[in-house]
Amino acid sequence: MKIILNVPYEEKDLVKALHGRWDGKSWYIPEGVDYHPFRKWIDPKTYQSLEAPLNIDDLLLQYKKTVSPALGSFQTIVVIGDVCRVFSGENNKQVFTYLDLTNSPNAKPCISIRIDQKIDVPLDIRVKVTGILSVHNGNLQIRASEILPIDEPTVFKRTLAQWESDYPPITNLQKKKVGIRFNRIGVIAPKESAGYNDFITLI
C-alpha cells in the first residue's frame, strides 16, 4: 500500500532521511517501511485507518498476497506432527484423504495434509510428511507424496501420562478416609436458590 504524505518543502530532507520517496508529484512511504515515524505528514483519517485492527477477511487477503507468491518458490518440505483429524472422500471421481496435524495437547489443528488416495490413518499417531506446501482456501496445506509413521508418543499421550502422574486414581482407603460417596452428585448452592428442591428431587 502506497501512503501519500503531506510534506512542506522545508521538511523534505527529514522525510528523505526516514526513507520516504518522491514520485515526481508527492512524497510517499514505500512498501515495507514503517509508517509510524511519518505520522505528522499522514492525513489523520488515513492514519486512523492504518491503526484500525484487521478483520478476518482482510487478514486472509493480506496473508494470501504476501505468502502465496513466496510459496511459489518452495520445493518439497518435510514436517512432523500428530494426527488429530482424518477425513476421506470422493469428488468428481477423485478420491482423497485429508489429515489435520497438530503439535498442541488440546488437538488444535495446525496444518492440513492432502493425500490423493483413500488411506486409513489412525488418530493419535505421529507421522512424518513429505510434500509440496501451498495455500488452499486461505489455509496452509501440504500435498503429500509420502507419509511415514514415527514410533514416538504423540503430544496427547504425553499429556495423558502427565495427568495420570499429577492426578493418580483415588484408592478405596482414600475414599473411606475422605468420607465421600463418589457415585452421587454434590450440589453447592443456597437452599433458597431457584430450582434447588426440584434438582435434589431429580437426583
Summarize the structure.
The protein is of the alpha+beta class. It has helices at 12-17, 44-51, 56-71, 155-166, 172-178, 196-202; strands spanning 3-5, 21-22, 27-29, 76-91, 94-102, 111-115, 126-136, 139-150.
Helix content: 25-40%
> Total strand count, please?
8
Can you tell me the residue ranges where pLDDT is under 50 for at least 5 consecutive residues? none
The CATH C-level name of the largest domain is Mainly Beta
SS-based class: alpha+beta
CATH superfamily of the largest domain: Nucleic acid-binding proteins
Shape estimate: extended
What do the pLDDT scores average to?
Answer: 76
> Radius of gyration, Cα only, in angstroms?
29 Å
How many structural domains are formed by the residues? 3
Distance between the termini: 64 Å
The total count of helices amounts to 6
Summarize the biggest pleated sheet: 5 strands, mixed, barrel
CATH topology of the largest domain, by name, is OB fold (Dihydrolipoamide Acetyltransferase, E2P)
Q: What letter string, H or E per element, gives the SSE order? A: EHEEHHEEEEEHHH
Biggest sheet: strand arrangement: 4-5-6-8-7
Proportion of residues in extended strands: 25-35%
Q: Tell me which CATH architecture of the largest domain applies here.
A: Beta Barrel
